[in-house]
Design goal:
The chain has about 140 residues and is mostly helical. The chain is about 55% helix and about 5% strand. The longest helix is centred in the middle third of the chain and has 22 residues. InterPro entries: WH-like_DNA-bd_sf (IPR036388), WH_DNA-bd_sf (IPR036390). One of its GO terms (molecular function) is DNA-binding transcription factor activity.
């Protein structure tokens, strides 16, 4: 699949919805704090072994940093990961706004657009562009 050269970042190898992505998103949304592995596990509700392995991999690949006493935090110089997190937040807002427009009183009621809705690469790029403009 072709990539848009202006927005393509080969250094970000994350897939939304994975533990790796969730941890990066959490730490970059809360970049003024450092978190212990236990706090991250509790906040994201992930198993101990999964958190331990994922935190180590993220640290070893310079996605996140760690204080000498073991608190994990965002790396301030990783603008690409701030953009990634902002794009995730923008997509989340788009879907949340769409879902709030649908009545949940009648479980049989559905939006005709919901069944055929597709998120294109252009939609994602537009969301990232809007978020970048807000900075």
């Amino acid at each position: 699949m072709p990539v848009h050269l202006e927005s393509h970042d080969p250094d970000v190898d994350l897939t939304p919805g994975t533990t790796k992505s969730d941890i990066v998103g959490f730490l970059y949304r809360n970049d003024e704090y450092g978190y212990s592995p236990q706090e991250i596990r509790d906040e994201l509700d992930i198993p101990h072994s999964t958190a331990k392995v994922t935190l180590k991999r993220l640290y070893d690949t310079d996605y996140i940093d760690k204080t000498p006493d073991g608190y994990y935090h965002a790396r301030s110089e990783r603008e690409d990961l701030y953009r990634y997190t902002a794009a995730l937040d923008g997509l989340d807002r788009m879907f949340t706004d769409h879902e709030e427009g649908i009545s949940t009183d009648d479980s049989e009621q559905t939006s005709p657009d919901l069944d055929t809705a597709k998120l294109t690469d252009d939609d994602i790029e537009d969301a990232v562009g809007i978020i970048d403009e807000d900075k």
